[in-house]
Design brief:
The chain is an all-alpha fold. It is built from three helices and no strands. Helix 1 runs parallel beside helix 3. The longest helix has 27 residues. The chain is elongated, with a radius of gyration of 15 Å.
């Protein structure tokens, strides 16, 4: 089950880095409104919860396809969140 452990670590690292980037932006831009940045953090946390729940599902027919779909979803949602962080102004 090393792949499951690595997938959980990937989810944690990717979304944790996105949240950290938002905090850095907020720290560097103390004069700007943080409603959009807080929404990005909330979305990252919700994505984390959703993906970890999917990883913990144990009764799947094709485990390889299941975990590949989770990895693809992490990549897609991660890119979306990164784009949102980059658009913070």
């Amino acid at each position: 089950m090393a792949n499951v452990r690595n997938l959980k670590k990937d989810i944690n690292y990717v979304l944790g880095d996105i949240i950290e980037a938002v905090y850095v932006w907020e720290y560097a831009n103390t004069d700007k409104d943080t409603k959009k940045s807080e929404a990005i953090i909330d979305e990252a946390i919700a994505t984390f919860d959703e993906l970890i729940a999917k990883v913990n599902v144990s009764d799947v027919e094709n485990a390889k396809a299941h975990f590949k779909a989770i990895k693809d979803e992490l990549e897609t949602k991660g890119r979306t969140l990164i784009d949102k962080v980059n658009k913070l102004g």
